[in-house]
Amino acid sequence: MENRCENCIIRQFNSLRALNKDELKKVSDSKISKKIKRGEALFIEGQKLDGVFCVREGVSKLSKLSSNGKEQIVKLTNRGEIMGQRSVIAEDFTNLSATAINDMEVCFIPKEIITNTLNSNPYFSLEVLRHMAHDLKEADDVIVNMSQKTVKQRLAEAFVYLKKNYGDDEEGFLSLTLSRDDYANIVGAATESLIRMISEFKKKGLIKTEGKKIGIVEEETLQELADGF
Amino acid sequence: MENRCENCIIRQFNSLRALNKDELKKVSDSKISKKIKRGEALFIEGQKLDGVFCVREGVSKLSKLSSNGKEQIVKLTNRGEIMGQRSVIAEDFTNLSATAINDMEVCFIPKEIITNTLNSNPYFSLEVLRHMAHDLKEADDVIVNMSQKTVKQRLAEAFVYLKKNYGDDEEGFLSLTLSRDDYANIVGAATESLIRMISEFKKKGLIKTEGKKIGIVEEETLQELADGF
DNA sequence: TGTAATAACTGATATATATCATATATTAAA
DNA sequence: TTTAATATATGATATATATCAGTTATTACA
């Protein structure tokens, strides 16, 4: 029995660490491991979820499509995160779609287990609450950035964020490779505008590129740019 | 004993309704009623809160100031809402400032009561969780609107929202009177740009104005405009 | 392995919105 | 009430970013 939750380090990073042995056993017994290929959806906007996803490996984007076909990425998920809790807790349709950015390994946990545990274990509720409080703060920050920063500043910020959160390889390229389209949808700009800015950053020596791959060269300057200098 | 929480209808609208008699008594014994004048702050960005606020009367704006002095309003609070919970739960500094838009009456509840109850009463945690889930969804929606809608669309949406949430008076003017500056900070635009749009809406007969006051004339058209037609 | 499909890139131009300047109305204060 | 301070309004102009059109490079696939 290799892949039991009891032995899974991932849970240390999320609210599942508040579960006791019994609860954890129940989760482990009912969970379903899934592999999601790059580009595939975990769930889509407006769907009703009958459980949550615990991310063991890979990165996904949470996004929303507008009527004119433009996508806005609201958040990138990290390893160890639980996805879909908002919808399960509010007993609501999902307000966002989740799409794998690279190959993912997730565990699906049926909602009954989650809601039962929420009702009985206040520590678990509190943990979930803390995580959601964190998400809410980040969302507020994004709102402010969207209205007060230029696309250039947001792009600089995104680069610094990606390096900080997902690291880079031996050659100094970001480990998480996004398409130009994804970048545009994160900073909220037209793809062409964004490509132009990447070219500009490259010309100024702030970043380097090799095909899709992007490497952060002048992290501090990018940070300053993001902060408005 | 008039103003005891036990007799306060307001709590039916927020997570405090999950409290049992004993818990409610404790809250009531330790709460402090406060009157906040229009323009005064309940708390400011970066502060540490030693409690939460339960809004009995009045409206406040949650906002963040940027380095260049521009303010972004993230949310308007409603009667019955609890403010400051995110910060208390995450044991974190506030990420937003709260300022009274009109005269307010709030009850301050010390954080110990809140955290103790969160630890002992899973129903309360769950209620708080549901409210935060709702806030998070709204925040996500704002992010998407900020990036995908024009200022004009966002303004139209704001008018419809204000009418729906705060109603209007006998003469058809919005009950909640905001300054042009506040409007600009809600939709994330320069004040002059916003004023111009108000003039335009007025010219087209979508709204009417009388000094600061704004009345919604063509609600449906505004809604359509907000949705992109 | 070659060809189609898709993504990345660049240029020209249009447009929404910001900024600066200034006038008028409204509110606060002396 | 009169003056000062602040908010609202409008015009002219600048600027960031979107849009449209087209080219080159990559990737997928038959």
Automatic annotation (TrEMBL), chains A, B:
SUPFAM superfamilies: cAMP-binding domain-like, Winged helix' DNA-binding domain. Keywords: DNA-binding, Transcription, Transcription regulation. GO terms for molecular function: DNA binding; DNA-binding transcription factor activity. Residues 149-220 form the HTH crp-type domain. GO terms for cellular component: cytosol. Transmembrane segments: none annotated. CDD domains: CAP_ED. Residues 15-118 form the Cyclic nucleotide-binding domain. PANTHER family: CRP FAMILY TRANSCRIPTIONAL REGULATORY PROTEIN (PTHR24567), CYCLIC AMP-BINDING REGULATORY PROTEIN (PTHR24567:SF58). This is CRP-like cAMP-binding protein. It comes from Maribacter caenipelagi. The lineage of its organism: Bacteria, Pseudomonadati, Bacteroidota, Flavobacteriia, Flavobacteriales.
